[in-house]
Design a protein that fits this description.
By secondary structure, this protein is an alpha+beta fold. The chain has helices at residues 9-19, 21-32, 37-44, 47-64, 69-91, 98-120, 222-239, and strands at residues 142-148, 156-163, 167-171, 181-188, 191-203, 212-217. The protein has seven helices and six strands. The two termini are 32 Å apart.
């Protein structure tokens, strides 16, 4: 049976508005920008409206199953809707508070951006590895043992290059199957944790990333969650000691 990665319920709720963008945007714009019937007609006849709709619909569809490409279409969609809003305010809006209306749309966009980023900008999909660190020379990493159930030779060594409570990116030379279940044996900073996980992404060696896998973590006990939190905090401080570390719950 082929498994499918799914987004959270909250993100799934947001995708309904994205997929229905042609309708939701017209309702939103007509209210916020005070568009008259002629203004709405002009929006509907605008090629930019259909271009924005395409990218928002694609983003909504992709986010449901956390496709990597959906982040890119989301960024493009954000650009087009900002331009579309500005154009509608200048050319078609009858509002006396155009600056406030545009500021409100930017706040809504920022909120949606943060919500989507929290869902998809995670180590197992988009590890935070700077391109010049792809060879991990001098880059902080955590040694780990991978229990690869398809490998009869026993645990395989690997190196965690990016880590969160939801998953991690591991540099390894071993090939894994998509959605393959693995177990991670991590011992660092006085903590010893066994973490169940699933391979979500197979990364080939490139300029921006070394060869490795993105692993999404399974359910952890409270004790292991606390231990993992300690490891993450110390690891991130080691990677970037100048910045304060804020861990998501």
């Amino acid at each position: 049976m082929v498994q499918e990665l799914r987004c959270s319920r909250y993100t799934a709720f947001l995708t309904y508005f994205m997929v229905a963008f042609p309708v939701t945007y017209l309702l939103f714009a007509s209210f916020i920008f005070e568009l008259g019937s002629q203004g709405i007609l002009n929006v509907v006849l605008s090629p930019l409206f259909y271009l924005s709709s395409f990218f928002w619909i694609a983003t909504g569809v992709g986010l449901r199953t956390l496709r990597k490409w959906s982040w890119r279409t989301f960024i493009v969609a954000q650009f087009f809707i900002t331009y579309l809003n500005a154009l509608n305010l200048v050319q078609h809006s009858q509002s006396e508070y155009k600056a406030w209306a545009f500021g409100f749309t930017l706040l809504v966009q920022a909120y949606v951006y943060l919500a989507v980023a929290r869902e998809i900008r995670v180590p197992y999909l988009f590890p935070k590895i700077r391109w010049w660190e792809s060879g991990i020379a001098g880059m902080p990493n955590l040694p780990i043992e991978l229990v690869h159930f398809g490998n009869s030779k026993g645990p395989t060594p690997g190196q965690i290059l990016d880590l969160s409570q939801k998953g991690c990116f591991i540099k390894t030379h071993i090939d894994f199957s998509h959605f393959e279940k693995v177990s991670l044996n991590l011992e660092a900073f006085g903590q010893k944790i066994e973490i169940p996980g699933m391979v979500i992404w197979n990364a080939k060696s490139s300029v921006t990333h070394p060869k490795g896998i993105g692993v999404r973590f399974g359910e952890l006990s409270r004790k292991n969650k606390r231990s993992l939190r300690v490891v993450i905090q110390k690891f991130l401080r080691q990677k970037d000691p100048k910045n304060e570390i804020k861990l998501s719950a």
